[in-house]
Amino acid sequence: MMEEVKAHAILTDFLQAEGFKVERSYILPTAFKAIYYTQSDEPDVNACVICEYDALPGVEHGCGHNLIAEAGLAAAIGIKAVIEIFPDVKLKLTVMGTPGEEGGGGKIKMLSKEAFKGIDFAIMVHPANFNAIYPNVLSLNGMEITYTGKPAHAAAYPWEGVNALDAAVNAYSAVSMMRQQFKPTWRAHGVFTDGGLKPNVIPDRAVLSYMIRAPNNAELEQLMDKLEGCFNAGATATGCTVVINKSDIPYFDMRTNSILAEIYRNNSMELGMTYPDIETDKAQSSFSTDMGNVSYEVPSIHPTYALNTTSVNHTTEFNLASNTIESHEITLIAGIAMAHTAIDVVFTDGVLIQVKEEFYKNK
User: Fold this and answer.
1) Is the pTM of this model over 0.90?
2) For 157-173, how does the pLDDT look when each residue is reduced to its tens digit (9 = 90+)?
3) 80 phi and psi, to 5 degrees?
4) Which stretches make up the Peptidase M20 dimerisation domain (predicted)?
5) Which domains does the chain have, with CATH numbers?
6) 255: closest CA among 212, 217, 306?
7) Contact (CB, 8 A) for 69 and 127
8) How far apart are CA 214 and CA 212, in angstroms?
9) CA 57, 59, 62: angle at the middle one, nearest 5?
């Protein structure tokens, strides 16, 4: 996590060359903040464009975060051009580089240090194989479950052992059976990260790692409570002890600001993008992002835009799709739509007030 050294250098060098005031290693080693405004006094409105740029082990940019950074830079350059043309506009542009989205909770750690304090609204886009204004972003937390038993010779004295792997398998099976009673919007996916080293030794340690997701934080807690019963049952059934650790960086669901979202929709449609109805829009897929946590602090949007691919995120095929000329061109369109959205919010009387009113109403 937080190892995006090359991306950090490339992005910050570019922004500095474009005249932004850049703060490298902002809060986190590979995070950054770049600001631009022309007035002598700091402007009244602070618009934030977010860049992500971390990759995934094995599938590299299988989630297209390289394109998120490109879209963010495109939007930033477009907004900067408008500030230069209209030097009297009271607009401050902040480009926030947020590393470690894939499980590291970069934005969450930055929020804890008030990185988004003073931001009036935040926008970013994400590549996918579909266009969505209101993507189905789920609350997420991780759980690590460690079972401790007692080793023994598996052939000579198996009765002397307490099998931690059996406890983990029991718990895994219990979770799988519980899925029959899951709500359609609940998710629980886990792997074994430890389960013994030699088959002739009763495993005295086994570890499960789970990601748990639900539509909102309240349902997430409800689901996690249910799963704890499964994990404890594995220990009870085998005589093991169990320690359950929850992640300290939970990802929140996304509170999409509809005022910002509809402005982005209109701007992107003018540039050729199309969208389904809202219900279909929300039902196309589900994922989690630390941008959800940002949306709890400032008005935010996180629309997705479609690359010309049938492959899905987190695959080798999507990694390949994220590095084509066509995908870069599509990303540029998304970046332009972001820039137009920010400018519309600032230049259209009353819109920023509406954005904030909706945010505080739903907070």
Assistant:
1) yes
2) 999 999 999 999 999 99
3) -60, -40
4) 141-233
5) 5-137+253-362 (3.40.630.10), 139-246 (3.30.70.360)
6) 217
7) no
8) 7
9) 115
